[in-house]
Structure formats: C-alpha cells, structure tokens
Amino acid sequence: MHDLERHIAELLARAYEQESKAIGHMLDWDAWREREDADAYPPDHLVYGDDEFIVPFEHTLTSLHESIICYLDAKKQSAYLAQFFEKFGQKFDVKTAVSNFNGPDFWDPECRNVFLINLRRFLTPLGISADLESYAHIAGVAYLDNILRNTARIVNQMKVPIGSEIDVYSAVKVVIESVFPSSKRGRSAFYKTAQEYKPDVLIPEIRTAVEYKYATTESRLTKIIDDIHADVKGYTGDPDYERFYAVFYVSKDFWGLPKFERIWKEKDFPDNWRGLYIVGA
C-alpha cells in the first residue's frame, strides 16, 4: 500500500473511533441547551468535553481532507481531484463537517457523520478504506480509556477496601486482563543505569502502559504528580510501548477536574502521556 494510502486508511480508522464520542458530546450540548435553566453556566463536562471530543475530531477530519488532496495530486488524478473539490470544497469548512450528522433511523440506530459517509463513498473506487488493524488498535485504546475512567465504579462494585495504590490497580487489573489477555504476561524493558521502571499494568497488544497513584491528601497529590513527571524519561527505550496513562485515584475531590487538567497541562507532559483524575466512590 502506498504510504499516503496507508496514512489515509489510518486517519479513517481514527475518525470512525472519534465519531460517536463527538456526536454524543454534541447531543449532550443540545440536551442542555433545551433545559429551562440553559442560561446558567454550562457544566464542566460539557465545557471541557469540547477539547476532549470535538477538537481531536476536527483535527482528524482536516488531516483527511488535506491528505486526500495530496494523494490525488501525487497520483495525477486531476479529474477526480476536481470532483473532490466540488463535493468537499477546496477550502475545508471543518466546523460544518463536524457538526453535520444524521440518524438514527429504521436502518441504522446510530447517528453518523455525513462528511465521513460521503467520504467513504468517494474513496471506494480508489480502493481505500479504514485500516482494520489500526481501527482495532484505536478501538482497544478507547476501550481501555473507558475502563480506567471507571476505576472508582469498578473498585466500588468489587467492594475492595482501598489503602494503597496496589489495592486500586489490582481491582482494575482483573477487568483489564479479561479484556486484554496479553496484559497477563506483559513484560517491559524500561531499563536505565540506576534503576528499572515498572508500570503497574502493561498491555502489549495496544502498546500501552498504565501507572496508578493514590492520594489521601492534597499535598500527597501534588507530590505524586511531580514524581510521575520526573519519571517520564524513565519510561522510554522499550519499542513495545508507545502510550502511557497516569491514573490518580484520590480519596476525596481535592482539586476538581478543571484544576487537575490545568496543572497537568502546566507540567508539559509529552503528548503520549494522559493523566486521569479519579475521585473514589
């Protein structure tokens, strides 16, 4: 497969994974605006959800538009490129592309993004479709993300008394291993001169490692974020892992999600690290 074809296929896989989350978030906004108290300040999950769900989807669709233009130009498909411009525009209106969706209906219970529907039809004669391997990988990461965000619920349902980080991740690890069998035998090679770095959970099949931290005081929370930041360089050198989660499980809501995300951003963690703030149930 041509490099650009592969890139477009990977972008399509990413777009399909982001699609439902973005549409769901827009529907949540619509539902909130229809409330009688809609003049009040919107809740944090809607405000911050724009950056989490809409902005990445916009970026992916924009990259798709630009990459397809490059591909058709490289292939000297001038007639097909003209059709592409006629159908999708030479200057891409990403806001309209993201917000235009249809459904559900009798044939499809899910809402679908119209731009992606039309793009899939346009690319079919070229033999380009979502890369299944990439889609499975991206979907797996999304599934793990959902599990980690539900850490408090998992711990609560398992009725696990929490006194340490081991108690937290041991409960969640049971769920992770049932979904990702490779995590049972995951091994890493994060070796440095003075020490070896060992994440709490390793999932080779989606090339992801997870580190759990537990805090019962605000000062402890501040310290463990600094500790993780100091350890970031230690989690390099193993090509089997390219994505890292730091899950901060707190006994009470010391900061609130907006403050946590602001501090995480100020620490300037690498793009392949994601921090989750979980308040114990």
Total individual domains: 2
Strand content: 5-15%
Tally of helical runs: 11
Average pLDDT rating: 88
- Structure class: alpha/beta
Strand order of the largest sheet: 5-6-7-8
Radius of gyration: 21 Å
How many beta-strand segments? 8
- In percent, how helical is the residue content? 40-55%
Low-confidence stretches: none
| Spatial gap, N to C terminus | 49 Å
Rough outline? globular
The SSE order reads: HHHHHEEHHHHEEEEHEHE
Biggest sheet record = 4 strands, mixed
Explain the layout of strands and helices.
Elements (H helix, E strand, L loop, with lengths): L2 H31 L10 H4 L1 H26 L3 H11 L5 H6 L1 E2 L9 E2 H10 L8 H18 L1 H7 L7 H15 L10 E2 L4 E2 L3 E3 L4 E8 L2 H14 L11 E8 L6 H10 L6 E7 L2
Parallel strand pairs: 6-7, 7-8
Antiparallel strand pairs: 1-2, 3-4, 5-6
Helix pairs in contact: 1-3, 1-7, 3-4
Q: How would you characterize this protein structure?
A:
The chain has a four-stranded mixed beta sheet, sandwiched between helices. Strands 1-2 form a two-stranded antiparallel sheet. It has helices at 3-33, 44-47, 49-74, 78-88, 94-99, 114-123, 132-149, 151-157, 165-179, 218-231, 257-266; strands spanning 101-102, 112-113, 190-191, 196-197, 201-203, 208-215, 243-250, 273-279. It is of the alpha/beta class and 281 residues long. It folds into two domains: 3-130; 139-279, no CATH class. It starts with a helix and ends with a strand. It contains eleven helices and eight strands. Helix 1 runs antiparallel to helix 3, helix 1 (3-33) runs parallel beside helix 7 and helix 3 (49-74) runs antiparallel to helix 4 (78-88).
